[in-house]
Amino acid sequence: MNMARTTPISRVRLTRRQRDRAILLVCLVVVAIGLIGLARATGWDEVRAQIAGLSAAQLAGLLALSLVNYLFRGMRWHLFARRLGLGTGFGQNLRHFLGGFAMSVTPGRVGELVRMRWIGRETGWPVERTAPLVLIDRASDLAAMGLLLALALTLSTGMIAGALPVAALAVAAAVVVTRPALLARLAIWAYGATGILPRLFVRMRRAAQSLARFSHPATLIFASVLGLIGWVAEGYAFWLLLGWMGADMDLWTAMAIFVFATLAGGLTGAPGGIGGAEAAMIALLVARGVPLEIALPATAVIRVTTLWFAILIGLVVFPHAEARSRKGAHVVETG
């Protein structure tokens, strides 16, 4: 009887896992084909020469700037966890934050919800009580990137078509998520309009009400500063990379291209923004007069030193975070 009940659920989980892997594989194949095609059209020798021209110190510098991004955003995660009242320490929160990077390539990055599982095991808090942590963290990223994009567009030497609406959309989404009453009303309206998944909308409303803990002005300002520093570090790395490869571009234009491409990739819903971010970055660089033999390797290198470096860190931290959460679950149960 038990086998009959559990087998369909296991099959559903297996099917979803296979589907997620298939989506990721398709995205990777499409990106690989596109990059290979561009490299062949440009010339393999030029692309290889640009990448080989980077020194170990320069690559280390790019990775170090990415670490600045992860550290400052990890500090922001810790700030939000403290405001939520989880009672977890900085090392514990940083472990959850970095370990979640291993799931960045799941569709819509929903796999990063594994952080909620770790927190639940170690603290006993249910998902609906910790879900606001994910919402406010994602909203803070949108706000920081939207504000940075608007600032970069203001200070850059040229405009990017469609960038201002994207910046406005990012900031607007962040405003909605950080307004508990507004988000709760949207959840009620959505349920009234669809009439489906009542439990989901009840949880959304409860999570929205819990966001009030983060609405303190000092918390939002400090979180915004941490997020801005983090994303400026990666945008600055992109500008340095372009300069090292011989592209003549001002800092703020490079910053705008990097942030816009990252946001555009995220809007596609593809795992890690794979495909959309690369396409947008190459197209914008070429439109700004950067030769394809520079735009192509620059895009590949910056994605490796940002997205894939984060995933690598996540894969290293993930087993440790999983083991510690299991140990924490045992302590919670026996306590």
From TrEMBL:
Membrane protein topology class: Multi-pass membrane protein
Keywords linked to the UniProt accession: Cell membrane, Membrane, Transmembrane, Transmembrane helix
- List the transmembrane segments: 51-72, 147-176, 182-202, 214-239, 251-270, 300-318
| UniProt keyword annotation of Cell membrane present | yes
Q: Where is this protein localized, as stated in its record?
A: Cell membrane
Q: Provide a GO CC annotation, any one.
A: plasma membrane
Q: Which domain of life is it from?
A: Bacteria
Protein name as it appears in the record:
Lysylphosphatidylglycerol synthase TM region
